[in-house]
Design a protein that fits this description.
Blueprint lengths: L7 E2 L8 E8 L6 H10 L12 E10 L2 E10 L6 H5 L7 E7 L3 H5 L1 H11 L5 E7 L11 H10 L4 E4 L8 H35 L4 H16 L4
Parallel strand pairs: 2-4, 2-5, 5-6, 6-7
Antiparallel strand pairs: 1-2, 3-4
Helix pairs in contact: 6-7
Bound molecules: guanosine-5'-triphosphate.
């Protein structure tokens, strides 16, 4: 995660540790808005209309003892909004790519969405694949195994099937996102502290403290860019 994508570290008076941006993408009608509203408001909205451009909602979750704020961006799946939604990829810490298990064409479009992610998102973004509408048992067109295989082959960090209608795995989806991002961030923070401590100790015996800190940062960047 580069500096521009580091989560906002919040002042102590705001009692949460990190704020992460999560962006949902996928074909129109796969259920992105319903997933977000189920998680943030606990409702399945009747007659949900298509999203225009982008919308966002916020929810705070607990990861261990830490409060984590998720800023969840719900993008429009319709092609005509594509240029607007692309601009939201860059600052995302996690991208949730959603298809509808009862709609084969929404699964067939996944490579196109992956192309968008590769073109516009940070290359270390957390990638989650979601097959929604599992409540539509008899109407299923995409077997779970096919979703798992696609996730593995394309190096997603996590795959699960959900239902915004009956709440299957909805909380789990966003809790996984929060947990994984928090854990990644803590590892990065520990490395930064360690390198800074090493650089400070070394500089006590050296005439070039600035260079040592620069070198530590370079090492950190190269070791942190190995994800994916
Ligand atoms: N059976 C079932 N229907 C769902 C589920 N999630 C969403 N729907 C329905 O699918 C339709 C589309 O849902 P939305 O949440 O608007 O889909 P979207 O992906 O946000 O669509 P866009 O905003 O156009 O990109 C609505 O009629 C919902 O009621 C689900 O888990 N199960």
């Amino acid at each position: 995660m580069n500096n521009s994508n580091r989560p906002v570290r919040l002042h102590w008076m705001e009692d949460y540790k990190y704020l992460f941006k999560v962006v949902l993408v996928g074909n129109a009608g796969v259920g992105k808005t319903c997933l977000v509203r189920k998680f943030t408001q606990g409702i399945f909205p009747p007659g949900q209309s298509a999203t225009i451009g982008v919308d966002f909602m916020i929810k705070t979750v607990k990861v261990g003892n830490d409060k984590i704020k998720l800023q969840i961006w719900d993008t429009a799946g319709q092609e005509r909004f594509r240029s607007i939604t692309q601009s939201y990829y860059r600052s995302a810490h996690a991208i949730v790519l959603v298809y509808d298990v009862s709609c084969q064409p929404s699964f067939d479009c996944l490579p196109e969405w992956l192309g968008e992610i590769e073109s516009y998102a940070n290359r270390r973004v957390l990638k989650i694949l979601v097959g929604n509408k599992v409540d539509k048992g008899d109407e299923r067109e995409v077997p779970e195994r096919i979703g798992t295989d696609f996730s593995d082959v394309n190096h997603f960090d996590y795959f699960l099937e959900t239902s915004a209608l009956d709440a299957t795995n909805v909380d789990q989806l966003f809790e996984q996102v929060a947990t994984r991002l928090t854990n990644d961030m803590k590892v990065t923070d520990e490395r930064v502290h360690q390198y800074r401590a090493d650089a400070t100790n070394s500089s006590a015996n050296s005439s070039g403290p600035i260079k040592l800190i620069d070198r530590a940062q370079t090492q950190l960047n190269s070791c942190c860019s190995s994800r994916q």
